[in-house]
Amino acid sequence: MKVPPWCKPAFWGVVGGAVGIMILGFAWWGWVLGSTAERMAKARAGEAVTAVLVPLGVERFMGQADAAATLATFQRSASWQHGQLIEQGGWATATGSNSPNAAVAKACAQQLVNRNTSPARDRSTEAPKSPAASVRSRG
Prior knowledge:
- By secondary structure, the protein is mainly alpha-helical.
- The protein is built from six helices and no strands.
- The C terminus is likely disordered.
């Protein structure tokens, strides 16, 4: 069987085009391998779980009876201990889970370190300080 002379350049054109499309696809068009897509999906799922659990952990920490004193002690501790303290306290353990989530512990610790330790004033018992109230009291 004799191959026509135009087949060889056509074959190499198809191969070159396929390689070029693959280079463009992976470099610029966002193509990824299945393993990369799986890794990206797991990372995003982990970030989503952390984003949901961090406010709950902070809320549980601040909901304890001596939260202000515990927070002050927590903020005075060494920064490398913060995540461990949150894990040991159980504030990074999701309901139904047996082990704490290290990413949640780290994020909770960061939020608690940045939290203000001064006690909030209870403004519900203070008298209103409106201009009308001060005028009435003078007259």
